[in-house]
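Annex B.
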Amino acid sequence: MSDHRSMPVPDGLEGDRLDAAIARMFGLSRTRAAELISAGEVTVDGAAAAKSDRVQAGSWLEVTLPPPPSAPVPRPEPVPGLKTVYEDADIIVVDKPVGVVAHPTVGWTGPSVLEGLLASGVRLTTSGAAERQGIVHRLDANTTGLMVLAKSEAAYSVLKRAFKERTVDKRYHTLVQGHPDPLRGTVDAPIDRHPSGDGRFAVVAGGRPSVTHYDTVEAFRAASLLEIKLETGRTHQIRVHMSALRHPCVGDRLYGADPTLAERLGVRRQWLHAVRLGFDHPTEGRPVEFESGYPEDLAEALDRLREE
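Pseudouridine synthase: predicted structure tokens.
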């Protein structure tokens, strides 16, 4: 079922191209916004308009949005390299390999942690959306390391609350370009979708509060190894905040990393790994902590830096 919207152009979009304005107002990509305009699904003050037309604040927009795509149904699918670190009746902690998402999403055809566990016979709680059963937090597809999933409904509700209330100790190591100044600090900057609508996130006024603590573990000639403690868990948070400091994660082309340095170190994705995860066990109450060593590609990059 399509979704018809009718509203004035906000003051903040005065002078923007129509496709850019539509993208920002409705959270679409510029390409998708342009397609809607070309299909005649957008009028400005009652008349058809071109995607390159400049909008004026207060002009009346009529937009017919397509129905959102339905979420994919998880199916058991083995995931090579997905390791179980710990498991009991309530939780399972895994070490996620590169190129694997947390759960199936629209447009993703690769492997997911959820489907890999289903293929291994692990029964997860069915609380929450069907395609996200047991998921209480996520890692990006190309970020490796520790994830906890809920197997019981009790564990699901307690862990969801723990992540929301920031009582989970999430530690990451990341290799960033250059040397942050100061060597230890906090980035407190709101994050939201990048205005371009191209899938990136960015520091945006009025975005969701986001706090990242960092500390330098080891400094090299062209890069620094940092330990990161997250207070919040926004999408791409570490990658966005490091880029905002002008020290992007090595290999993170999406957020401005130098491809030459990544190539020299043999890094083909962002150098970012979830090394530690600590929380109170959701049903037993005892503190638990898990650690993960660096995968081969990230360890090799560090070896190359130490030899320079």
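Residues 153-164 form the longest helix (12 residues). Residues 175 and 225 are 4 Å apart (CA to CA). Further annotation is deferred to the next reporting cycle.
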